[in-house]
Amino acid sequence: MSSNPSDHGDTPQDPLSEMLARLFGGQAGGIDPQELAKAAGLPSDPNAMAMIFQQVQAMFSAPSDGPVNWQLAKDNARRMAATGTDPSVSAQQARDVGEALHVAQMWLDPVTDFPSTAALGKAWSRAEWVEATMDSWRRLTEPVAVSISEALTNAISTQMPEEMKSMMGGASSMLANMGGAMFGIQLGQAIGALSKEVVSSTDVGLPLAEGTMALLPANVASFGEGLDIPETEIRLYLAVREAAHARLFAHAPWLAGHLFGSIESYARGIHIDISKIEDVARDIDPSNPASLQEALAGGVFQPDRTPAQDAALERLETALALVEGWVDEVTAAATSNLPSAAALREMIRRRRASGGPAEHTFASLVGLELRPRRLRDAAALWAQLREERGIEGRDAIWEHPDLMPTSKDLDDPLGFSKRRELLDASDSDVDAALRRLLEGGFDEKDNSAQAAAGTPPEAAPSADTSSDETPDGDSDADNPDGGKDGNAS
């Protein structure tokens, strides 16, 4: 009997069907590869599927740079971004974006103490956004990706029948990278979907493309659909927000590291419950692709949070709220003469607080929600500080992370300055006392004051002259008579 696949039927077996047949044995006959791809959230287009599996096959046959194939993730993100329409940026669109960002810089000058940056304004297509931000997404997700891919690899190797292991022989590298391939494909899908929602490089509140100001004209147009607002005003308002983000991250250089550090602190404590993955794997019906979709949508790959991770996420959420609240407040002041500013401000607030479908997909994949839930509280705090301290005093708080408000300050914006004054006064007293001690200690007047305040004499430096020294300062050791003359008299 010939081994040619065409001898087994009218249509040759495709590589995916062959792989599924090997993995699931006789049960694979009921699997439709296109239905399986649809259930997993992959494109149903045969050509796109063929390209994806060519990449996966190449990854399995060659060493990768880690547990996750990031090239696969980026390629899939670009492909997802181009699904439907991803028009190239026209020369007119580039000019419009450049002019909007230039005007935005001028409007921001009177309302913030931070000067304009040297960053050039750019207009990006969705694919260009993917290219420009992919390194940041890798930094954000790599710790999560590594943990999840290792868990998947362990689960697959544990559940694989012994006869399958022997059949695979020396293909251990393929097994080791299978989990990373699955995560890379899913991550690419999430980033590609996000590329259709973001309107700028800082739209998620993070400096994903440091030193750059950019708008996505196609998404700006989609953002304005159904609004009775001229596109020029929408573009200008979004440009002011983008320029405000750029100024803040440029003049608070510690801020980006603080945000990414909070995410990394969360990621360091990730623990994937392998038993949960194994339980779900046993329940997946190979003949029913919908069961795979239910498993992926059920958060099976989502990490279990620890108290330390909850604290890290609270710090991240507070920091994001402070960033977005400051940008919201500054943008409102800069666009006060724009007729549609109030409506656009409210729309942006709701959009940032709730998140879009792609943000939810990303959150379910890596367990991170990059949303400033307390944006309104943070904006109220920055407005209060501007009234109390002026623009310069408000912006000076960004000089150091120790000066930043906390989540408790968001609970009571009006009391922030009073609490900070009490804290500063307490710190000043401690610093003054320490400085005086280092410069020579406390004098007799300080001891008298301490005694009046009830401080025990032995707790304070002593200036007693009654026992060891004579009134003129000579010690008994210097008296040849050892003090007898004094006693005789």
Automatic annotation (TrEMBL):
<keyword id="KW-0645">Protease</keyword>
<dbReference type="GO" id="GO:0008237">
    <property type="term" value="F:metallopeptidase activity"/>
</dbReference>
<keyword id="KW-0378">Hydrolase</keyword>
<feature type="region of interest" description="Disordered">
    <location>
        <begin position="441"/>
        <end position="489"/>
    </location>
</feature>
<keyword id="KW-0482">Metalloprotease</keyword>
<feature type="compositionally biased region" description="Low complexity">
    <location>
        <begin position="449"/>
        <end position="463"/>
    </location>
</feature>
<protein>
    <submittedName>
        <fullName>Zinc-dependent metalloprotease</fullName>
    </submittedName>
</protein>
<dbReference type="InterPro" id="IPR018766">
    <property type="entry name" value="Zinicin_2"/>
</dbReference>
<dbReference type="InterPro" id="IPR042271">
    <property type="entry name" value="Zinicin_2_N"/>
</dbReference>
<feature type="compositionally biased region" description="Acidic residues">
    <location>
        <begin position="466"/>
        <end position="479"/>
    </location>
</feature>
<dbReference type="Pfam" id="PF10103">
    <property type="entry name" value="Zincin_2"/>
</dbReference>
